[in-house]
Write a structure and sequence with these properties.
By secondary structure, the chain is mainly α. It is about 75% helix and about 0% strand. The protein has helices spanning about 5-25, 30-40, 45-60, 65-70, 70-90, 95-120, 130-160, 165, 170-180, 200-220, 225-250, 260-290, 295-325, 325-345, 355-380, 390-420, 430-455. Helix 10 runs parallel beside helix 16 (about 390-420) and helix 14 packs antiparallel against helix 15.
Length: about 475
């Protein structure tokens, strides 16, 4: 049974997750006004977004070691303070260089804030309480990219771009005060901390940084192909070297041997594909509405907001559905729902009734919410309590990498829409490239569907409140023994 303190801690981490994700997406909306205020071209503001995402990708793998070394309470409180003060510094920035530097500092706070906060939530929790606790944490990750276009448009239009950062000040102050009261120091320590895997830090951080930078280059119009190939090649080589090192060392920064746990592996693999699509669609939909349909930014943002309505609508039923049907049927339904609704977005036209668009957005939001909740919960279903830190670091790193690739995947799919659209019957319209892009993204969701179909029917039953899906007397699959550090 979840007590009040556990529930409040989960809601606290949810608020921090919302701040981190909102700051990763809201700046794009204000690029023209920020460019004018800072005396640079709007395209240069893309560096402000990329600096934040690269910092998140580079530093999240360190969250597990820092927690073991300094304790979850100390790291979490420091992260909230750094994020909040960096937000103030971003708002006070007078030039692009200062703003980018402060975004790096803000990303450093965000990289520690959410993974460590989620570790606090799952550590010590009963297995059957995890679905509800993690469901509290997941929804902000879904809400922020959907709310960002409308919130960014309203703030920059009626208040000014600096308020995108200033709104974090009261939120951060409240989060710090609540965290100081809720999170206890005695639960921080679990034996001596491991030595820092310096080679792992160097290889993983540079590999993820190169991967995120490649994604940024792919998402920018007119990018030099040689630069993309150089960054992409470096990302592949560094990632391969990092993987080899992590599998061979005794105390790795990220323990890839945790992937022997079938349910965690399903969350990392299928969940990553799912995350890419979830991050890509809210980026493409406003572009479709504004560039192809001629809608205003406010109208477009208001319609996309109905994806969030679907996210919220399914939440009350998500845990009951999980207890009734188990993970495999729900992940199949969620992946299929995201694939179908994403493909249907490609068939929208300017003449489509708004009511139809709203219904499609709500259904898509419900499928997104259900899928991500299940992927987040099943990641920890069969992980021993003493290995939660390793599992959390691995899952958080994979999640951030996938989310960072979402916009790049959407941009690549949109660029492929022009040549591929020329092969379609009938005359091309401004919406044709978007139609092709949505269908290509739907194929990625089918990749997640294939992974869900391979799951055992009783996968993840350790966290369900209901009997195993196989019925009474049908045991869940045995947990694999994992060697490595505790």
């Amino acid at each position: 049974m979840i007590d009040t303190k556990q529930r409040h801690t989960a809601l606290l981490v949810a608020g921090c997750f919302f701040m981190e994700n909102l700051d990763g997406t809201i700046v794009s909306t204000a690029a023209p006004r920020m460019g004018d205020a800072l005396g640079v071209a709007p395209a240069a503001i893309g560096l402000v977004v990329t600096a934040y995402l690269v910092t998140l990708a580079v530093l999240i793998p360190l969250s597990g070691w820092l927690t073991a070394r300094f304790g979850a309470r100390r790291v979490f409180l420091t992260a909230i303070a750094v994020f909040t003060l960096a937000s103030l510094a971003c708002a006070l920035s007078t030039g692009l260089g200062m703003l980018v530097a402060m975004r790096v500092l803000q990303g450093a706070g965000g990289a520690m804030m959410v993974p460590v906060g989620r570790l606090v939530v799952v550590s010590g929790a009963e297995k059957t309480d995890m679905p509800r606790l993690i469901s509290y944490v997941v929804w902000p990750a879904l809400a922020a990219p959907v709310i960002a276009p409308l919130a960014g448009g309203l703030l920059t239009t009626y208040a000014g771009w600096r308020w995108m950062f200033l709104v974090n000040l009261p939120l951060g102050a409240v989060a710090f005060a609540v965290a100081h009261r809720l999170i206890d120091a005695p639960s921080d320590t679990a034996g001596p901390p491991p030595r820092l895997d310096r080679w792992g830090v160097a290889l993983v951080s540079t590999g993820l940084g190169a991967l995120t930078w490649t994604a940024h280059l792919l998402s920018e119009p007119g990018t030099d192909g040689a630069g993309v190939l150089l960054a992409g090649g470096a990302a592949v080589l560094l990632t391969a070297a990092a993987t080899r090192h992590l599998l061979r060392t005794d105390q790795p920064l990220i323990d890839l041997r945790m992937l022997k746990v079938t349910t965690l592996r399903a969350s990392v693999s299928g969940g990553s594909l799912f995350w890419v699509v979830v991050a890509a669609v809210p980026f493409l939909l406003p572009l479709l509405f504004q560039e192809a349909f001629g809608w205003s930014a406010i109208r477009s943002g208001a319609v996309v907001l109905f994806v969030f309505v679907g996210n919220i609508a399914i939440k009350p039923a998500a845990n009951r559905l999980l207890d009734r049907f188990g993970f495999r049927p729900l992940l199949i339904a969620a992946a299929l729902g995201v694939a179908v609704t994403t493909a249907l977005c490609g068939f929208l036209t300017a003449a489509t009734p708004v009511a139809v668009v709203l219904v499609l957005a709500v259904v898509a939001g419900a499928a997104r919410s259900l899928g991500l909740t299940c992927y987040q919960v099943i990641a920890f279903a069969d992980v021993p309590q003493e290995r939660m830190r390793d599992a959390n670091t691995l899952q958080s790193t994979a999640q951030q990498a996938a989310a960072g690739l979402g916009v790049a995947a959407a941009t690549l799919a949109l660029r492929a829409g022009d040549p591929l659209g020329a092969w379609l019957p009938g005359p091309a319209t401004p919406a044709t490239p978007y139609g092709v892009a949505f269908c290509l993204l739907a194929l990625l969701a089918l990749g997640a569907l294939a992974g869900a179909l391979r799951l055992h029917p009783t996968a993840g039953d350790a966290v369900r409140s209901a009997p195993a899906a196989g019925g009474p007397g049908v045991p869940a699959p045995a947990r694999p023994r994992i060697r490595g550090r505790a």
